[in-house]
Specification:
mainly beta, seven-stranded mixed β-sheet, four-stranded antiparallel β-sheet, 11 strands, globular
Length: about 120
């Protein structure tokens, strides 16, 4: 049974940092694409960042480029989203997701973790 469990969310002030973790279990994710998405109240879910587990290649949304860093820990089977210089507009529920490289959609999702940035 595949499980993605996010942690690390919270309430911070603008300019602060947070580190989100996604613990992946239930299968080998070495050939998967791991992504972070977020959804603010009243908004569509949007892409934040993704990493190809094998190669470590990363992609970011323009809105977070230069502030957020996605990485993976092969030993702990964890994907991390380091968020620096947080802004109020980063407030959202953040979700971890996984898909095979050629899949058209993400197949597995976590339950989400709330990030709130006050001004």
């Amino acid at each position: 049974q595949v499980q993605l469990v996010e942690s690390g969310g919270g309430l911070v002030q603008a300019g602060d940092s947070l580190r989100l973790s996604c613990a992946a279990s239930g299968r080998t994710f070495s050939n998967y694409v791991m992504g972070w998405f977020r959804q603010a109240p009243g908004s569509e879910r949007e892409f934040v960042a993704r990493i190809y587990w094998d190669s470590g290649i990363t992609y970011y949304a323009d809105s977070v480029k230069g502030r957020f860093t996605i990485s993976r820990d092969n030993v702990k089977n964890t994907v991390v989203l380091q968020m620096n210089s947080l802004k109020p507009e980063d407030t959202a529920v953040y979700y971890c997701a996984a898909r095979r490289p050629l899949a058209s959609a993400y197949e597995f999702w976590g339950q989400g973790t709330q990030v709130t940035v006050s001004s």
